[in-house]
Amino acid sequence: MRQRRWMGGLAAVVVLALLVGGLVARKARSTAEDKPKEATLVFTPAEVVQPQRLALPGRVTFSGPLVAPSTAIVRAKAAGTLVSLRVGEGSRVQAGESLGVIDLAELNARLNEKQAQAEAAKALLTQAQRSHDSNLGLAEQKFISPVALENSKASLDSAKAQYQAALAQVDTARIQLREAALVAPFNGIVAKRHALPGEKVAAEQELLTIVDLRKLEMAGSVATFEVGQLHPGMAVQLQVEGVDEPIQATLARIAPAAEAGTRSIGVTVTLDNPQERLRAGQFATAVVLLPSGEPRLTVPVTAISSSSGQDYVWTLEQGKLLRRTVTTGRRDAARGLVEVSDGLAAGTPVLAARFDNLREGQAARVQATAPAVSAASAAQTH
To answer: Does pTM top 0.85 for this prediction?
Structure first.
């Protein structure tokens, strides 16, 4: 009797398990049937390109502001009152031209003092000379000892030295007075006025800034892997803001070491500006054209995307989208092309533009005619 009950319970459990398993299987099949299939991205031929093997002309581009290397700051060489400034910002000056007047009463008084001290030293020298001449006659007559004569000679030499020192101090005072005059150091234009007439100025205080615009420079930075293609004397094309036509310049200097904390090296370009059309501070972009290199695979610049410092492209291979990390080289901005030196095989279709929300492995194909679902809208949908 117990054995029958046990067998009946086991059969009931088995039947219940079969029923539950069937329900789960039917639900799984129903879920799978209800799940929509992922749409296949369809791209037009204009959105997909084949890499072309071309030789792109090399170019190195850098930018920076124009500066005037011949820039001088006129400073007050002595403390005093700024009586007048004859020039203002934008005034053209000639070398040696008087720019203003500082009240130099203190320097004049110092010069007068030094001259008076020189006169006193001269009088002492005259007296010492007479005394020594007299002592020479007395020494010949044996009226004074040789030691007294030597003391007289030492006094004369000391008086001569003091007189020479006094004359040197007079010359120094005259030089200070001459250098305190405000004169233009070279031909140029007043760029800025730092003081106004009537102000009390201190020694070495800035008064005027003068620039010569006939020769300008532009300092920029290039990457360390590009600097090996440059050398001083190369022709440079400058595109200056506000100027339509490019300006010819020359690569003048290359820094011997990279800038601290960067992987760039400073370069300097010089250009002539005889008519002074350009001004210091204008921003410019420099382009150094290099000889064409060997033919390499090229793709449109718009096909290149970047993430975490790595460049990549999207390719269509065997009906799926694949993301390929690539190494890029020269760029031709005029044609919108970029070299791909590694990571891409010839003949591999590449998306020519950037699309959002693409997923690696997603089904995709190229449609010769207008697709039912555009690639852009499908990519944004998924």
So the answer is: no
Opening angle at CA 365, ends 360 and 367, nearest 5: 150
Contact by Cβ (8 Å): 41, 364: yes
The amino acid occupying position 80 is G
If you count them, how many residues does the chain have? 382
Dihedral sign (CA 316, 321, 325, 331): positive
Query: In the block, which residue shows the tokens 């095989």?
Result: 345
Cβ atoms of 230 and 212 closer than 8 Å: no
Task: Please tell me which residue, 269 or 32, carries the higher pLDDT value.
Answer: 269
State which fold the 41-56+294-381 domain adopts: 2.40.420
Which pairs from 258-261 meet CB under 8 Å and 24+ separation?
A: 258/224, 259/221
Per-residue pLDDT of 136-150, as tens digits, reads: 877 777 777 788 878
Beta bridge partners of 267: 220, 254
Q: What is the CATH number of domain 61-69+212-292?
A: 2.40.30.170
CA pair distance 61, 285, nearest whole angstrom: 7
**What's the pLDDT at 74?**
92
- In the chain, the amino acid numbered 338 is V
**CA proximity to 115, closest of 159, 172, 166, 177:** 166
